[in-house]
Design goal:
242 residues, alpha/beta, six-stranded parallel β-sheet, five-stranded mixed β-sheet, 9 helices, 11 strands, elongated
Length: 242
């Protein structure tokens, strides 16, 4: 049975992963949290999952590389520096990084990319996400994932097209941009809407998460899949076969 080590084991996702893993054919090797030494966990686990904090990611990647242990990274709010570290780790071990481990969100991202490519420049793209009041980063990792999918569809990057700071007298909407809005409140697990709007009509693609277990199941599925892979950087699309 594959053993999974959890970075961020005391967080919501860490606890959810521990709860669903036995039913999916995995066992928990142990857990570590911010401030703990990650090396021991990396050595005794067959595969690691990281749902901790950006500040801990560098140490977790270093521990995974030292132990030659595959790692699934679901931590959000990471920077370009973190992505460079992930690329470096992926030269030595299998690494899967994603903004969302849900099967439904994986399919949604594919639909967003295809819709953006087919609809063309007359259609404006807006992304709205809502999470619980304690979420620390915005836009969410899932919103960024969807934004990247939309940007890919229209032949650009989210860094070039994304707009998330509208306030005051902003003037008309700039053509070719991808708007992003973040809402926070209550205990919302995660709602994401991608709106394609043109003169006289609009299309809305929506995913609502009612139970954090959907992400936990996807994370375990990703960990089981990643265990047998060669060094490299992987995505949930490859896990899901979409």
């Amino acid at each position: 049975m594959t053993s999974i080590g959890i970075f961020g084991s005391m967080g919501r996702m860490g606890q959810a992963i521990a709860a669903v893993a036995p039913g999916l054919g995995a066992q928990i090797a142990g857990g570590a949290d911010v401030g703990d030494n990650p090396a021991d966990l990396a050595r005794k686990a067959d595969v690691l999952v990281d749902f901790s904090a950006p500040a801990a990611l560098e140490a977790h990647l270093a521990a995974a590389r030292a132990a030659w242990t595959p790692i699934v990274i679901g931590t959000t709010g990471i920077s370009a520096h973190h992505h460079a570290l992930i690329d470096a780790a992926a030269a030595e071990i299998p690494v899967l990084q994603t903004g969302n481990t849900s099967v439904g969100v994986g399919l949604l991202a594919r639909l967003v990319r295809e819709a953006a490519a087919r609809l063309g420049p007359d259609w404006d793209i807006e992304i709205v996400e809502m999470h619980h009041r304690n979420k620390a980063d915005a836009p969410s990792g899932t919103a960024l994932m969807l934004g990247n999918a939309a940007a890919h569809g229209i032949g650009t990057t989210l860094a070039e097209a994304g707009v998330s700071d509208r306030a005051g007298l902003t003037g008309p909407r700039a053509e070719g941009t991808i708007g992003m809005a973040s809402l926070r409140g209550g205990s919302v697990v995660g709602d994401h809407s991608v709106i394609f709007a043109t003169a006289g009509e609009r299309i809305e693609l929506i995913h609502r998460a009612d139970d954090r277990a959907i992400f936990a199941r996807g994370a375990v599925q990703a960990a089981l899949w990643l265990k047998g892979q060669q060094p490299g950087r992987y995505t949930m699309d490859q896990v899901l076969g979409i």
